Amino acid sequence: MIKNINIIGHKTIVFDSNKHKSILDAANEGGTVIDSMCRDGFCNQCRCALVTGKVEYFQDIILDDDRYILPCSCVPAEDCSISPGR
Ligand code: FES
Question: What is the distance between the alpha carbons of residues 52 and 35, in angstroms, rounded to a whole number?
Answer without folding.
Answer: 21
